[in-house]
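2.7 Reproducibility. Because tokenized structures are sensitive to small changes in the input, we list the exact sequence used for Alpha/beta fold hydrolase, including any N-terminal residues retained from the expression construct. No trimming or masking was applied before prediction.
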Amino acid sequence: MSELTHDATSRTVDTPRGPLHYHEAGDGPPLLLLHGSGPGVSGWANFGANLPVFAAHFRTLVLDFPGFGKSYPSEGNPMFAALPAALDFLDALSLDAVPVVGNSMGGNVAARLAAGHPDRVSRLVTIGGVGLPLFSAAPPEGIKLLVQFVQEPTRERLQAWMESMVYDTAILTDEFVEMRWKAASAPDALADLGRLFNAGSLAAMRDVRTGAADQARMLTSIQAPTLLTIGRDDRVTPLDNALLPMRLIPRCELHVFHDCGHWAMMERKNEFEDVVLSYLLRDRKASGGR
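Resulting structure tokens (single pass, no recycling of outputs):
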């Protein structure tokens, strides 16, 4: 396999709503990876380091949602544009049921995709982003710091937000922070992020009862086998958020990474890849496949 760099794996596909950017690597059955939200985020920023491991087993597709990375900008709240874009992407590549791995916002989108379009998701893996806070305060610390950055986008506030995303801040190298700062500083990126995280979104999060019935209904509608993964020290989607989906999703398993924050795929990279690959390959192993 050739070196899986950003540029070597970069692809664009046209859809009815606009061009979607993605990264592609590997052969075999398709696997869709959906990134989270936040300053400077993209599919590559979330999953670039994991791509070689997944590409050894799957045709791995890492999508940029509208308003993020190099996909078309979002006219409204990027959260509302994400699910239609994921469906457009699957249609554009003529893909039917695929396993989907979603981080944070991407986990929420993946869950709604599985609930509303069960014929498109064969297995579901989430990294935070799904559920409701049962015991922890809302909004959580990481979201408050994110809104502070949107209101005053400085490198110092970006650093503070990034520190809330991890258990061990040693992984926040100067190079990593600088990469996110450059991407987050783009005017269009800040505008799209501001539509998603603002004073209004904080106010909505304070009343966890709002939308709770719809959330429960969505979770019970997920028929795909589901693996929830979460960091024990997540300050964006605290651990108690996983309890409701663990109970309500019919075919659900939960894996908790100790000494880990919101970015399990980065902070506990090797363990994350082992756990998720084992789950995704379970059907293949049961049938005697490679």
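The first strand starts at residue 10 and ends at 15.
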